[in-house]
Amino acid sequence: MMLKKIAKAAGLTISFVAALMTVEGSVSMSTAEDKTPVDMIVHGRYVVTMDDAKGVIEGGAVAVKDGAIVAVGTNAEIASAYSTDNEIAGDDRVLMPGLVNGHTHTAMTLFRGMADDLELMTWLTTYIFPMEGRYVDPEFIRIGSELACWEMIQSGTTSFVDMYFYPEEIAGVVDKCGLRAVITAPMIDYPSPGFKGWDDSFAAGVKFVQDWQGKNARITPGLAPHAPYTVSKEHLADVAKVARELGAPISIHVAEDKSELDTIEGKYQQTSIEELADVGMLDAQVIAAHVVWPSDSDMELVAGKSFAAIHNPTSNMKTGAGFSPVPKLLEAGVTVGLATDGAASNNNLNMWDEIHLAALIHKGVATDPTVLPAATALDLATRMGAKAAGLEGVTGALKPGLRADMIQVSVDSLRMQPLYDVVSQLVYVADQQDVVTTIVDGKLLMADGKVLTIDEADLRARVLEISARIRADVDLLK
């Protein structure tokens, strides 16, 4: 009956209309069959790729297969080439790479707010080191690391560099929660949780790297000599040698505080960075936390090396350490990442705070509003941040071939209006509560603001139980 009506209206025979519909149907079917099936397609009102070739795509999407990005384009381009049963809508959302936290101490979330407004060395020696001696054990690490991972997933951090005790426990938590991490084993010349001193901490660190290399694609094991003022020059040379042999990254606090400069100058008549060069550490991959006080010659020394300076604006201001000369480091050709530091010296793991501060601090220091523009600040937390963590070619941008580590940031609240420049809005307005989706390696870790891989109620109970014990002991130290 329908064919008769169509044919009559068009003045055509029924057989011609039937043949035409058959041809059109077969074309549509062929088009559907020609589409490449993928595991997931994620959309965004804006797609901030952090890839120079793509830039910002309005009305875009990313196709994901086997945990990797296979295509980035407009909604129409992706829809024409790919099919999936799993689509995440992007209405009033920015789709962008997940954030990279270049330096933290995950389990120190359990020391959050324990001792504040103190000079760095007083804070360390009077509160942190004694409390670590009393409380840091595998259970403490598991609870504190899980709390940190929940906070990072919730705020859009998908990769982080960690330096803390019992790294195998941290790796276990990361394995379960789904994040990506460079986990480095701490080494120090003095007694520390689980160790009598240098020899056993060094041996354990080397074993950790050997045990975890190649074990989990999301976990990169490394070595973490604490700092030049807590590890002798001889021992730093040992770390540099074994890191080169194993191809492992080194995470270390460097040029963080003026007192460190005085200590190293007094011992060796050189800067901390010159000491690293002396022991051969600059021939390995170095993730150098803080770098607040590098000299001009220090910057020339590390430029072009596998050396990254990790900027910790909140922590460095809170401890009174100063301001890392990030614009000068970048101008010298030094790779720079961004980080929160641990929650005991921040007091949160919110990378949006660090992005915002990085974009503002250096304008004020230089009295120049053009210094460190919004796009550069965002780069420090994504593409360049990934390079700083040794994850270049893995994450940091939305680009085919990279792993599918990405987040959606909601821009539908009234405080996000009007929206003229999406990158500016991310840097100067967005915060952790705006993150609604977190994906790592193509796996959904948070949907509509709900963390999926960690039991929040169970974690809360364990955190409250151990923090009650810590609070009682902190009161005795005051």
What does the model show?
The chain folds into 3 domains: about 1-35; about 35-95 and about 405-445, Urease, subunit C, domain 1, CATH 2.30.40; about 100-395, Metal-dependent hydrolases (TIM Barrel, Alpha-Beta Barrel), CATH 3.20.20.140. The longest helix has 22 residues, at about 455-475. α4 (about 120-135) packs across α18 and α5 packs across α18 (about 455-475). The model is unreliable at about 1-30 (pLDDT under 50). The radius of gyration is 26 Å and the shape is globular. Strands 2, 3, 4, 6, 7, 16, 17, 18 and 19 form a 9-stranded mixed β-sheet that branches. The chain is built from 18 helices and 19 strands. The chain is an alpha/beta fold and about 475 residues long. About 50% of the residues are buried. The termini are far apart.
Question: Which labels suit this protein?
Answer:
Urease, subunit C, domain 1, TIM Barrel, single chain, alpha/beta, 478 residues
Detail the topology: elements first, then pairings.
Elements: H1 2-10, H2 14-34, E1 36-37, E2 40-48, E3 56-65, E4 68-74, H3 75-81, E5 82-83, E6 87-88, E7 93-97, E8 99-104, H4 120-135, H5 138-155, E9 157-163, H6 167-177, E10 180-187, H7 198-212, E11 219-225, H8 233-246, E12 250-254, H9 258-268, H10 272-278, E13 286-290, H11 296-302, E14 307-311, H12 313-318, H13 326-331, E15 335-338, H14 351-366, H15 374-380, H16 383-388, E16 406-410, H17 422-428, E17 435-440, E18 443-447, E19 450-451, H18 456-477
Parallel strand pairs: 1-5, 2-6, 2-7, 8-9, 9-10, 10-11, 12-13, 13-14, 14-15
Antiparallel strand pairs: 2-3, 3-4, 7-16, 16-17, 17-18, 18-19
